Amino acid sequence: MPKLPFNHEILILFLSVAVQVPLAVFLGHYYDQRSFIDTGYLVSSGLNPYQPHQITIFSNPDLVGINPIIGYPPLWPLLLGLIYRLTYNIIPNIFLYNFAIKIPVIASNIGLAYLVKKIMQRLGEPEKKIRAAWLFLLFNPFILLTTTAWGEFDTLIALLCIASLYFLSKCMVGKSSLLLSLSLVLKPIAFPLVGLPFLCYPTQKLKKIAIYLLIAILVLLALWFVPFYILGWMVPSSNFQLTAYFRMAGGMTLFNIVEIFTNTTTLPGSWSFLGYLWIPALLIGYYFVYRNPPKTFSELTKAAVALLLIFFLTRTWISEPNVDIIISFALIALSVKEWTFRNFAFLWVFPLIFLFLNTSVPQLFSLFHHQ
Question: What φ, ψ does residue 251 adopt, rounded to 5°?
Answer without folding.
Answer: 65, -140
